[in-house]
Amino acid sequence: MKEYFNTIPHVKYEGPKSKNPMAFKYYDAEKVILGKPMKEHLPFAMAWWHNLCAEGTDMFGSGTTDKSFDAEKGTMEHAKAKVDAGFEFMVKLGISYFCFHDVDLIPEGDTIAESNKRLDEIGDYIKEKMDATGIKCLWGTANMFSNPRFMNGAGSTNSADVYCYAAAQIKKALDLTVKLGGRGYVFWGGREGYETLLNTDVKFEQENIANLMHMAVEYGRSIGFEGDFLIEPKPKEPMKHQYDFDASTAIGFLRQYGLDKDFKMNIEANHATLAGHTFQHELRISAINGMLGSIDANQGDMLLGWDTDEFPFDVYEATLCMYEVLKAGGITGGFNFDSKTRRPSNSYEDMFNGYILGMDTFALGLIKAAALIEDGRLDEFVSDKYKSFNEGIGKKIREKKTSLAELAAYAEEMGAPESPGSGKQEYLEGVVNNVLFS
């Protein structure tokens, strides 16, 4: 079998002092953190679309990276070459999972029947590679945003014919996800939104989206899919107003339409910041609602107002992310690198360097998050902050054994309340720095 990355060795852990660009400095798969190997805390996944398809094209220029893998693009030979290259890539990095959109895997056909035939063929080929390597599918999804037919959305479209085409894509993507043993199925509503209310019936569109999701759940369960359905929140881009703005909005939508028992969140760091939130905020909101499912591990550039999908290198952010994940008891999905190398980083070595960077960043974040938990000062402060609710009137409030009238009477007898006390934000940020750099 052809080797596409023959100059690149299997990437191993060499420790923080290593200067080998093709070695992990912090990701030690078997290292035990809080009773569990690092590889179990961090089930990393390769993103098929960025890693095997994206060529560095942007709004101002054509691609800079050759992803033909010595095959003619737009052919099934190219589709299979991407499979071969992808599995070689994952094996050399020790990555256990991959994620895909349907049209990442194949050149889309002129008809849904033609596309489905190609997906059957490539699915069989991928399954052979999975059986040979032990690599698994984290999640699948259908691309219902790139083709011009989806200019007004898929579930939110004004065209019943387009709606049916979207349903057909979802059905086939679910078939393939089940065939490949995927742990989840994602809905990213990239064009489920609107540009102006002057031509939009929001209620109509949201009801249609919910109906499509209900049909997907019903069909998925009927063919044996036992994993999580996932929504990936994003506030804007490509649409000006997207219906899955952030975790809170998406959770509210799921509960309004009775989908909350089957769906969780797939949180992306870059989407969180586009919504005006921190990454850890979106993780915390998902977790406290019992909906923290999977994570798209990347980061954005705070100087740019769009989705840059950079490989994560900010250890402070990764630490706070992993702190949320550990406090939530882990995630049911994994860590998919929805990240791409920068346009001038156009070599195969750069592809590996990007994943090494991302895996090391989250490994170091995991190590430091575990240290924060073991240090205990953050938990101790938070517990002490709310101690007035552990006894007396506070305890009655928490146990719902009081009334508005009783609380008002208590307040009148009390007079002016004492100060709630200092939030000590600067002290706590110093604790984080102390643990990070000691």
TrEMBL record:
E.C. numbers: 5.3.1.5
Main location: cytoplasm
Key words, A-Z: Carbohydrate metabolism, Cytoplasm, Isomerase, Magnesium, Metal-binding, Xylose metabolism
Catalytic activity: alpha-D-xylose = alpha-D-xylulofuranose
InterPro entries reported in the protein's UniProt record: Xyl_isomerase-like_sf, Xylose_isom_bac, Xylose_isomerase
Amino acids binding Mg(2+) 2: 268, 271, 307, 309
Active-site feature positions: 101, 104
Residue stretches spanning the membrane: none
Subcellular location, record wording: Cytoplasm
PROSITE patterns: XYLOSE_ISOMERASE (PS51415)
Cofactor (UniProt): Mg(2+)
EC supergroup of this enzyme: isomerase
UniProt-listed NCBIfam families: PRK05474.1, xylose_isom_A
Description of how the protein assembles with itself and partners: Homotetramer.
Annotated protein name in UniProt: Xylose isomerase
This protein's encoding gene: xylA
